[in-house]
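During the no-cost extension, the postdoctoral fellow (Dr. R.K.) reprocessed legacy sequence entries with the updated structure-token encoder. One reprocessed record is reproduced below for audit purposes.
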Amino acid sequence: MKKYLLLLVTIVVVSSCKSNKDIVYIKDMEPLLEYYFNADKETVVQPNDLLDIVVSCKRPELAVPFNTRHGAVTVDSYGGLSTLSEGASTSESAYRVNKNGDITFPILGKVHVAGYRLTQVADIIREKIITGDYIKDPQVSVDLLNFKYTVLGAVGSNGTFTVDGDRITLLEAIANAGDVSANGRTDNVKIIREEDGKRMVLVHDLRNTEIFDSPYFYLKPNDLVYVEAKYKKKDKEDRTWQYLTFILSLVSTTCTVIWATK
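Re-encoded structure tokens follow.
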């Protein structure tokens, strides 16, 4: 009888401790088969974006007027240009795109940048500097400072994350959030995006290679990723009742086994 009772308890405990996490991503992806992607994918500037813009050239002193937003500018003995004053933060020296999609740039005045990629914004400013006969061969770098996205739902860590650069994929974003949890549905991952005053929602199946073709596969600033749970989280009262039910069931089964063996 003791043998039967021990076997029963072992089966119950093992089955209750078994992990439910069985996640397979893009399971229809075939080895050695080529899957094309858009290598030129680049973030498009939107209103309220923060841009870090630096102008440089062979004669650093000529670029000084275009970098005054960065604070005090100095030229070292090697000709290097230092533009960020001590104690100034990068966000304070950035250019914020207004609601009309414009920035106010030193010397050049108002420059429309919304709707353009970062490399295009650099080209626009460069051409304006050349056309104005300020510098013959300027170099312009443009970086996005406020690329953030949010991940919620059944993942390891909910929260808002910052991108180091100007591009990130849906899979990378989920990985940064600690991966999909055992309770998460990989076939129902939503991306909520705001564009032109409207909110759009697109559902993705992480098990399918079709996500590579999604226009939302590469996230945009302020995107919200939501991983739906397989079942709702139970509150403390529900869990207590669940544990009590399990214990009663175990006791009942044990008593039945003991009665049957007798």
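The first strand starts at residue 50 and ends at 56. The helical segments are 2-17, 60-63, 118-131, 170-176, 236-261. The remaining legacy entries will be reprocessed before the final report is submitted.
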